[in-house]
Amino acid sequence: MIRISREWATPLTIGAFSLMSVTGLLMFFHSDTGMNKLAHEWVGLVMVGGVAAHAIANWQAFQRYFLTGLWSRGLIALGLLVLAGSFFSPPGGKRAPPPVLAMKALVSAPLAKVAPLSGRSTEQAIADLAKAGIHVPAGDVSIEKATADNRELQGRAIAVLFSKAK
């Protein structure tokens, strides 16, 4: 079993925090590239472990923040309030991102309307989808209905229809 100590818990926390800070700022300003978002998400999990280990390794000092000092308890309470608030949607409800709206429009429209957008006839689209294991019985049926609302199959259908090779 690994012994929790400051020798590795603190550097792990610092390293994870550094990556999270940089990638978080890049994502905030829509300047992330490559694997920034993926690294941010996965290293975030590592950071949770690092912070927990850091808190355990520094337990005496950690407890003091909860037991003494109005400022420290106030900041902790503020952080918890912001966390709780983050689970609520702003007034007016949450709108889906544009790519989700576009995908929803494509899968809910009859295939006869979607096929021309992909540069295919309805018959060719039905045949191409059948080759991919997606059975659409007729042009008046949507991908959504044909896939029984299975999002993975819907994504595959869109990939088949809008891939370059026809």
Automatic annotation (TrEMBL):
Family annotation (InterPro entries): DUF4405 (IPR025517)
Pfam families named among the record's database cross-references: DUF4405 (PF14358)
Domain annotation Flavinylation-associated cytochrome: ranges: 8-59
Stretches that traverse the bilayer: 12-30, 42-59, 71-89
Keyword Kinase among record annotations: no
Keyword vocabulary terms for this entry: Membrane, Transmembrane, Transmembrane helix
Protein name from the UniProt record: Flavinylation-associated cytochrome domain-containing protein
